[in-house]
Amino acid sequence: MSTATVWLVIAGCAVVTFAIKAAGPVALGGRRLPDRFTGVVALLAPALLAALVVTSALADGEDLHVGADTAGVAVAGVALWRGASVLAGVALAAGVTAGLRALS
């Protein structure tokens, strides 16, 4: 692939991204979103975070992999679910992961 082709692809991606991001404000024109949509938008960030955590915890290159880091994330998730602080969850995840890696 030539350098010019690469730059054309990058420029095309930039234009398409701009169009997609501009479509919402242009279509709404300063109006408020309905409450139903506001609730969905509020849930997008936690859903994206969960997807990133699951991908990081279960992915090893191109394959799914369950290992020490997966166990650390699981222990931290249970601790956070039970009401532990975020700092305690991170410390638990790091400790469990480090301990399991030291044992193997």
3D architecture notes:
The chain is mainly α and 104 residues long. The protein has two domains: 1-31; 35-103, no CATH class. The protein has four helices and two strands; from the N terminus they run H-H-E-E-H-H. The protein has helices spanning 3-28, 35-58, 68-81, 86-103; strands at 59-60, 63-64. Strands 1-2 form a two-stranded antiparallel ribbon. Helix 2 (35-58) packs antiparallel against helix 3 (68-81) and helix 3 packs antiparallel against helix 4 (86-103).
Query: Pairing-aware structural class of the strands and helices?
Result: mainly alpha
Distance between the amino and carboxyl termini? 44 Å
Q: Biggest β-sheet, characterized?
A: 2 strands, antiparallel
Count of beta strands:
2
Strand content: under 5%
Alpha plus pi helix count: 4
SSE order, one letter for each helix or strand: HHEEHH
Total tally of structural domains: 2
Uncertain runs: none
- Shape assignment: flat
* Radius of gyration (Å): 21 Å
Could you report the average pLDDT, rounded to the nearest whole number? 89
Considering DSSP H and I runs of 4 or more, what fraction of the residues is helical? Answer: over 70%
Strand order of the largest sheet: 1-2
